[in-house]
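Lab notebook page, bench 4
Experiment: in silico fold of construct C2
Operator: M.H.
Input chain length: 185 residues
Purpose: comparison with the prior construct
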Amino acid sequence: MSKGKYGIYLWFYAVVAFILAFLGQTLLCGILLGFVIVAEKDEWLSKQVMQAFFLSLVSSVVSGVFSLIHYSTPSISSEILYGIHRIFYTGINVIESLVSILVLVLVIIALTKVTKGKDAGIPLLSKLADRAFNVVEKKVYPPQQYQQPQYQQPQYQQAPYQQQPQQQPPQYQQNVPPQQQPPQQ
């Protein structure tokens, strides 16, 4: 394990970033990302902290959208509509809980990988961090040589009607004397 410029192990910064992401501290995670990029200047560490920041950002956006939906609906006084309203908010709370559990699972997986010095490998966010550093896997296709198609004379089909055989002009035999054969002995 390598130490940074300030004598702190590099994986420690990544662990702190993922813990901040789980706690929903997007601003602190962003500040840590800025510090890591400017002060430490380590590509691996910057990618890990960037993944944690993106995870925190996604979690905050999902939570913000649901809270916007929650506070934008008017309060309802009717008992029937109140029941529907309650079911709707229960569904939103369940979705928010599932997102929180997903973030927790991703953070635990990332923490176990980062402490070993490996890439966190969060499914979509690792590719996004790679794109930020312009480390994109280019798909290489083997070059194929262009083969010009052989020219073939078009084949025409014959008409469906039957052709009558052509008559040949009559051949005349000439009176040619037969060749004489030598006498046999």
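Observations: The helical segments are 10-23, 26-40, 43-72, 79-114, 125-132. The CA atoms of residues 4 and 31 lie 17 Å apart.
Next step: discuss at group meeting.
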